[in-house]
Specification:
The complex is a heterodimer.
Chain A: E1 5-7, E2 10-14, E3 19-24, E4 31-37, E5 43-50, E6 55-58, E7 61-66, E8 71-76, E9 85-92, E10 99-101, E11 105-110
Parallel strand pairs in A: 2-11
Antiparallel strand pairs in A: 1-3, 3-8, 4-5, 4-9, 6-7, 7-8, 9-10, 9-11
Chain B: E1 4-7, E2 10-13, E3 19-25, E4 31-38, E5 42-51, E6 54-57, E7 65-66, E8 76-78, E9 87-94, E10 102-104, E11 108-112
Parallel strand pairs in B: 2-11
Antiparallel strand pairs in B: 1-3, 3-8, 4-5, 4-9, 5-6, 7-8, 9-10, 9-11
The chains are: A mainly beta, B mainly beta.
């Protein structure tokens, strides 16, 4: 069953603008992770935030987690054309340590 | 270089002809899994393995088999492929399961005609 749901499904912005993607989930989690996928290629891990953390930064990435609302957001600042990709949130929880992925947000950054 | 290697990258086969997609990781990870990715459905877990000789079904295991005889290898077997198994397949591995990021292979694009 799908756990995370990203919003929006697609986002188109100009280079230099900020991009915000949201993820909602349904059950309790141990951590939430964000991944990036360039067209048809393998997913690459971006950042992990644990359930007891509220915010995390990595370079131009900022992730927030609100466990009371069961939601997370990924902010990419000062976007570049090379940031064009699909972005997925994945939740980890339960006894089998499974990562459950959402359907992704397709981000297009126009030069 | 730490990596997960899948082979083949592309495969076209006919209905009913058994095939195996190999997956190998060089990070000594205990946890490995297979996903399929389909348009509009995202990534769905097929099977996973928490260690050697320990495998279990994911969300969409029907029509697939796996084995984990060695820590580094986790092949995906389609005994009798059908057209609805046409998809993009990913193998992934993780170290300390609860907190670790997943490392993904480059994917295998399978077409069953």
């Amino acid at each position: 069953s799908q756990q995370g749901e990203e919003d929006p499904q697609a986002l188109s912005i100009q280079e230099g603008e900020n991009a915000t993607m949201n993820c909602s989930y349904k059950t309790s989690i141990n951590n939430l992770q964000w991944y990036r996928q360039n067209s048809g290629r393998g997913l690459v891990h971006l950042i992990l935030i644990r359930s007891n953390e509220r915010e995390k930064h990595s370079g131009r990435l900022r992730v927030t987690l609100d466990t009371s609302k069961k939601s997370s957001s990924l902010l990419i600042t000062a976007s570049r054309a090379a940031d064009t990709a699909s972005y997925f949130c994945a939740t980890e929880g339960g006894s089998n340590y499974k990562l459950t992925f959402g359907k992704g947000t397709l981000l297009t950054v126009n030069p | 270089e730490a990596q997960v290697t899948q082979n083949p990258r592309y495969l076209i086969t006919v209905t009913g002809k058994k095939l195996t997609v190999t997956c190998s990781q060089n990070m000594n990870h205990e946890y490995m899994s297979w996903y399929r990715q389909d348009p509009g459905l995202g990534l769905r877990q097929i099977y996973y393995s928490m260690n050697v000789e320990v495998t279990d079904k994911g969300d969409v295991p029907e029509g697939y088999k796996v084995s984990r005889k060695e820590k580094r290898n986790f092949p995906l077997i389609l005994e009798s492929p059908s057209p609805n198994q046409t998809s993009l397949y990913f193998c992934a591995s993780r170290g300390e399961a609860r907190t670790a990021e997943a490392f993904f292979g480059q994917g295998t694009r399978l077409t069953v005609v």
